[in-house]
Here is the input.
Amino acid sequence: MPRRWLAPDFFTDEKMKKATVPERLLGAALIANQDDDGRLRGDPAYLRAIAFLYDDYSLEEVKRMRDHLVQVNPNILVYENAGEEYIQLKRYSRYQKPRYYHPSKLPAPPGWSFEEQQSSGNQTDTTQLPSNNQTVPEKTPRDRDRDKNLDLNQNKGKGEGPKRHPSPSLTGSILFQLLVDTFPKAWGRMPDSRETAQLRDLGKEISSAGGATAQQIHDAFKEAANQNKLHISYIRKILHAWLGFERGPPD
Here is the structure.
């Protein structure tokens, strides 16, 4: 997950004076966990995990906070798609300027058209295909040459195998801690003792093979959530496939 910018005027926003202190904390968590298109999951369990991990708020209390934020701040939009709740931050690109733009994997709000266009000043689009509601700036010849060289370097010596993310890779205790930290952010709950042990074993296994990037870990958990396969064995299969341990995608 790229680092997000929390503008100083967040704390002086007239709209937020009607929000309680916990609701303001939730608002900050929304900004910190949005993707590059200003979206994130909106179900109370997920929001509780990213904003109130060390507090005892019930899911109903978190839902009330979320809904009140929507009332006092029109920049926050809650919507449903296929029975799942999502959040869209309308003015996300005014403050968030990721260098490498990753199109959202979450569905857009019904009838949504971008309020602001992606700025090309300090951003480079990725090689991922955009979804139907996204526009990626046309690449210059220099950009195409750069991406061609990047693809050649990534696939060198690997034939037609899965592409690896660029370095640096994480190993050891740092990799294990990232696995543990990503679990509740992606799946909306803390790992139990058995799952923590599985994450530790997975961290050792990946470390011994050279490690993995933070983006790979984040994307693996997100892919498992999208497929509704919330178990460590599926994360292991995804990472094995991406790192070239196995042929083909996970089952």
Notes: The first strand starts at residue 39 and ends at 41. Residues 115-137, 150-165, 246-251 have pLDDT under 50 and may be disordered. The radius of gyration is 19 Å.
